[in-house]
Amino acid sequence: xxxxxxxxxxxxxxxxxxxxxxxxxxxxxxxxxxxxxxxxxxxxxxxxxxxxxxxxxxxxxxxxxxxxxxxxxxxxxxxxxxxxxxxxxxxxxxxxxxxxxxxxxxxxxxxxxxxxxxxxxxxxxxxxxxxxxxxxxxxxxxxxxxxxxxxxxxxxxxxxxxxxxxxxxxxxxxxxxxxxxxxxxxxxxxxxxxxxxxxxxxxxxxxxxxxxxxxxxxxxxxxxxxxxxxxxxxxxxxxxxxxxxxxxxxxxxxxxxxxxxxxxxxxxxxxxxxxxxxxxxxxxxxxxxxxxxxxxxxxxxxxxxxxxxxxxxxxxxxxxxxxxxxxxxxxxxxxxxxxxxxxxxxxxxxxxxxxxxxxxxxxxxxxxxxxxxxxxxxxxxxxx
Amino acid sequence: xxxxxxxxxxxxxxxxxxxxxxxxxxxxxxxxxxxxxxxxxxxxxxxxxxxxxxxxxxxxxxxxxxxxxxxxxxxxxxxxxxxxxxxxxxxxxxxxxxxxxxxxxxxxxxxxxxxxxxxxxxxxxxxxxxxxxxxxxxxxxxxxxxxxxxxxxxxxxxxxxxxxxxxxxxxxxxxxxxxxxxxxxxxxxxxxxxxxxxxxxxxxxxxxxxxxxxxxxxxxxxxxxxxxxxxxxxxxxxxxxxxxxxxxxxxxxxxxxxxxxxxxxxxxxxxxxxxxxxxxxxxxxxxxxxxxxxxxxxxxxxxxxxxxxxxxxxxxxxxxxxxxxxxxxxxxxxxxxxxxxxxxxxxxxxxxxxxxxxxxxxxxxxxxxxxxxxxxxxxxxxxxxxxxxxxxxxxxxxxxxxxxxxxxxxxxxxxxxxxxxxxxxxxxxxxxxxxxxxxxxxxxxxxxxxxxxxxxxxxxxxxxxxxxxxxxxxxxxxxxxxxxxxxxxxxxxxxxxxxxxxxxxxxxxxxxxxxxxxxxxxxxxxx
Lengths: 384, 527
Hints:
The complex is a heterodimer of chains A (about 375) and B (about 525).
Chain A: H1 2-6, H2 9-44, H3 48-58, H4 62-79, H5 81-90, H6 92-111, H7 118-148, E1 152-154, E2 160-162, H8 166-169, H9 172-196, H10 199-229, E3 232-236, E4 253-257, H11 262-266, H12 272-289, H13 294-315, E5 318-320, E6 330-331, H14 339-366, H15 373-377
Antiparallel strand pairs in A: 1-2, 3-4, 5-6
Helix pairs in contact in A: 2-3, 2-4, 2-7, 2-9, 2-13, 2-14, 4-5, 6-7, 7-9, 9-10, 9-13, 10-12, 12-13
Chain B: H1 2-44, H2 47-81, H3 83-117, H4 124-153, E1 158-161, E2 166-169, H5 172-176, H6 179-210, H7 214-249, H8 251-258, E3 270-277, E4 282-289, H9 292-298, H10 308-334, H11 343-352, H12 356-360, H13 374-382, H14 388-417, H15 425-433, H16 437-451, E5 456-458, E6 462-463, H17 464-467, H18 473-504
Antiparallel strand pairs in B: 1-2, 3-4, 5-6
Helix pairs in contact in B: 1-2, 1-4, 1-6, 1-16, 1-18, 2-3, 2-18, 3-4, 4-6, 6-7, 6-15, 6-16, 7-14, 10-11, 10-13, 14-16
């Protein structure tokens, strides 16, 4: 219980903000390459055997990778219940599309090669493409909207009302971020295929990956410029009490130009995040030009890390700003679970996460090595 | 309009949850059966047991993937369609879901890849470890989700916080060791074991009837019958335990399941069959067995089981308390600071806050519960009665199936131990035709548990109609139709692949005497 006293409410909130970032970045890095690979599938695999190679590079790991998303959803529910409630219901139809795509994906992996029919397989290949492309795009579009603020407000009972619709989400800036997200995950998937596949598949992946890396650099820079010059950020104008009860309506918020850049002026070392985004993508580009290797994949992972972290760092302490009623915005200081829940959850995470990391890395090591065409056609009945 | 959103959201949740639970029980049970079969392989070195593990593993995989895919829908839907619920109880309800991810899903999902792709990369013992991890992971996920569900039935270890307008945890320990959750966990996983046992038994019986794959079928049936007999007994015993715990905290659900409108002198009799009439508030043509209900639910001869009418009168009292709590809450919220709240207001809230949810029942009729008329209070009290007829009959069908499963498993257990599984062809037919029944029983069970909880989304705390997201009805209609279309296609695909895999069969199976060479001779049984 001394620990409970030491971990004060404000500190726990920052820790859970960081853990939220860890989960989202973990998801983007691990399941991100699965989505990139699925998006690339129809383009880098020309024959059936090639496509099976592509699918089998992620075959043994996609299931574990997807748990980052499921655990992320659970952690948001548990640690940031208002964020969970507002974002999932506010983005209702976008969420439904994401779900439909995410349902198609595992089924596609598992069922595609269970029948010989070429039509059956082609249909599942496109289902897999949707399962990779649609979530990549929607997650990016969602982030693009969050950066601009989302049209919701709370009433006095803290019941949320959402005043936008699906088409409102599809504004130019959000679409730009959506495409950035697609390019980023395609780059990342191509880097994975560069390591895990051989021959023509690897070669095509490297070529597409190079273009994707350039697109990432351009669109990441462009998004930053637009945020700097055209779109206002948000700032809290009332005094902040990191230990206050979680009620968003107790603060004052204004929108102002350049507010998303203030954190970098106060703590210049935070520029590491965007720098990592640019350097990682540049490193991946160089890697794709040579023989793509483990280093290309690491560069690409660093880019993913940097880009996702940039969003979080720029917005801190905001998590989900409200465009129609800025006071309703969710911030780190007023939308978390109770002190007790954050503490209990941290104990669970501290015990379980190291165990997860140990066995996950063991499994990756067991499965290490490229997937060859021979290994697919050699009658291993459990390959996809 | 509001009610339509509620009804559609409920319909969508019910459909997606029941669909999800078509795959979950088989995953729960088959993962354990795979672990049993592979254990026999590793201990004896007989390769036929490895071939059995691989064959049933193929069917497991087809089923598992849809369980995973449809499970994501479940987690997202709380936020999508039940956002006020999520915000109101996320502090308690979210934690088990997050821990489920950390403790169970990572384990299960990481090792399931190794189960399928690791046969040639791992030693037999390592591979067995992966199989155990899958079985443990899937069963742990049931534990955590039932801790979350148990809390909806019996919300312990939490209190309402006026500052944040939501329920917050007061004792995580009580949430974890909720008696309802524990009983439900064992009842549910046992039901999963029965499902998988009957699946393995039935598919093997088909092979026996066709005279195919006899070595595999005979051994599979023996495992299924033994495992299934133990599990089917456990389902009924723990179902009874669920009933007993529900007597303590969900009296209305019990009374509705029993069609018991008025309180009877103890020990109450059990309506074996009858026709509950919600309008007339009576159960017609009831055939009663004296004493049984009192004995089952209270485990005593003297304790009374309250009937529906008495419980409605209780609800009226709690609505009155709830209105007092609601009034005090408004004053607390209107105060400039927590210290400005008068002491008597705070005391009124503390005394009646537990019944705040009962005031919310009035929101259907009137915006401000304090303005409710006596008639509206009466209506709200009667709205705590769920529809009795479907509960009464669903419960009876479920229990009837439960006893049938015990008889089926006991029969095949005896046949297996006498090595005469194929002596009676009609029994093989019974086993094959029983394959869909455990799914039916499981769905009926969930229906009783969740429909019987209505009108509450959290028993006594938050009415279902209040918990819903205020989103456009068109949006919900689109998602509902989308889910129905997508899920129907996937169901067709799944069943096609399952039937194809069963028809193709296990391929080449080792002869019963074949031993794997990598197992040291010392561990081989002497023959």
